[in-house]
Write the structure tokens for this entry.
Amino acid sequence: MNSFDLTLLSLYRINGQEWPQLPGLLALDPPKRAARGREQDRLITYLTLVGNLQHSSSDYNQIVAQAAETFYNTPGSLTFALKSAVERLNTFLTERNLATTGRGQYSIGALVMAALRGDSLYIVQCGPTHAFIMGRELQHYHDSQLSGKGLGLGQTTRMYFSQAKIYAGDRILFCAALPPNWEKAISEERHPASIEATRRRLLAVNDGNVSAVLIQISEGTGTITLLKPLIAPPAPISASASAASAPVSAPAPTSASASAASAPVSAPASTSASAAAASVPVSAPAPTSASASAASAPVSAPAPTSASLSAASVPVSAPASTSASASAASAPVSAPASTSASLSASREQIRATIRKTARFLAIAIERGRQMGQSFQERWQTFVPRLLPAGEDGQSSLLFGCSWPLFLAILLPVLVLVVGVSIYTYIGVPRQVQGYYRTAEEFRQKARVAVEPQLQREYWKTVLEMLATAEEYTPLNAAARQLRSEAQTELDALNRVTRIELQPAFSMSLSPGLQVTRLAASDTDIYLLDSGGGAVRRGVFNGKTFDLDGAFRCGPGEYNGIRVGALLDIISLPRGNPLGATVLGVDASGNLLYCIPGANPRASYLQMPETGWKRITAVAYDANNLYVLDAPASAVWVYFGTADGQFPGKPYYFFENQIPQAMPLAVGLAVNGDDLYILFRDPQTQDGYLTTCTLSRLVTAPTRCNDPALFVDTRPGYQGGIRLADGKFSQIAFSGPPDPAVLLLQPFTQEVFKFSPRSLELQKILRDQPYTPTQLPEGDEGMVTAMAFSPNKSLFLFVGGDLYVAFNVP
């Protein structure tokens, strides 16, 4: 959980009138069902729309809400989530501009989006925006070349990424266009007593339009608060001037949230993830829904401005009047007489630029119509000459009577073909080159970054940019080399060792096979199908494994004992008197010894004095059988005989200390006197361990480390009871010469390898990427079972198939 409190204060002035709430401002805590990787990310979105297309308060709310939804639904790296949110916003604005081109309407977006994770702030800027961090030193983030001209101008999205470390007491300022004298005023800022004083000082140094947000960082519990600035109400307006006046007072709120928002303007409104901005302007209509998390003042038609978002005219607009008597009063208030000559000249220059742009668009549309009409006339003259004439010397009836229909069908097809061709041969290469450039930029950032976590994010972004480019066209040699470099660097940071996983069987297994347990020997692999509780056997043929169709090992009655569906299996050592190679156990404690080429033999375990509640898992070591009964908070130990039987009563492993979370135990592993129990949180899916060492002394009882502590050796990660990415589902132990505890991470297809006593992370085993035999991804990519053989072969069951890697380091 973030420990910083965020306090947001709007700086919003239009035509000399200040307003308490900035349109397009949204601050959110992560939702409960955020995508993987977004659980600790808080989002701040600041959007300004310019142009001649009207935008209401609800328009702003819907647009920024879509971007926030995309961000929190995108798994992976933080920069990739920010990029996805920006691309969705750009696509929305571009499609809307294309739809309104015929009416000469357009809107361009200037965006600052920031994500806070711990003490790291990740910023992405689109358009000529500015971001300042006023802390131990002043940091100014602005790059017009990388951030481009804004959103909505085309399918290619230009973004400027930056990252900074923040501290308690810092202040952050975002603005769409930098007003005159602000940069000097910000550099001279000395942290006055309140951010309200900073707001007043910045507004005082410039009397033009202002659109910005000021953020105070402070120690706390991670809350978000939106302050209402202290604003004097507008001057009274005479009745004779009502047709051109500013907005009149707001009607009564229409919802519980709106009524709560009508508190005095000086009181701060505390907010949370669902309502990050709950304040309402005194003279503007109050929000009518609690879901309006941005809660910005309703706005009417924005003041026109140029596409470059010049600093002389901040692209915002006055809120619309809401009373019936002032329905005609939507015109903006005229600028005060004290406006400087330079400001007037700048505004006149902007108006001239807009007039030129509009004139250019009108001429382009008219010429397009003329060209279309000319093409149609020539086509009507040319095509009949190619057709056979009828008896009267005219063209055939088909094209004489049905010519308009033919043309109506043909022209859209031609336009579509031409458009697709242009996009394929011009648009796609440019877009791919844009992804290549972005990947190279992040490569340079990763090279100079010092913090491991930042290096990780940069290298991840390189891979994600290249993966996006590969969706359009195969990567060239330089891009493939860059991808290999990024993957190698990222693996080194994450302690990842790549292994060559390949399909274990030469033929596909039966569809619908639900394998939940695997057991392996030097030459065989056994698969437990939870659907029927039966075991299948694979035999090594020198390269792959062959399925043994004659192998019997499943529920049934054997030598007078009724065996139910098997719930766990273990591989038995060779040379046992029964000739069995695998041992299965059912929920009642019945044992099934499965023998290749022969019928299975059944036996049973002596029931403990307290009885069974539910057998969860079993483990085998040094002829002893360990049975986990999680609901009963018990581990029972059965001593084995020379012929592989377990005839005696069990003993209870724990003495004075019983692990607290035993009902959540899902597996166990044994190595000599050391017992490892894997627990799994049913809500978060996090896995953690308890380790116990059996005491053979009467005076020293068996003790447990409950829970045990992991030592995470990855730079930038912290060890502890749980790891940040430790959603473990199964446990195994690999014997000498390199003993280790193996934990399966099913969602990322990884196997974590820890040292036996200290639980220090040694490495993470993962499949080789970008190969024809790489593991399935998506919904079918979850690993359901794992096994490690004595000869160092790793088996994983993924997406209905079994994969194996030989000679695993």
Q: What stands out?
A: Residues 341-386 form the longest helix (46 residues). The two ends are 37 Å apart (CA to CA). Confidence is low (pLDDT under 50) at residues 235-343, 395-401. The first strand starts at residue 4 and ends at 14.
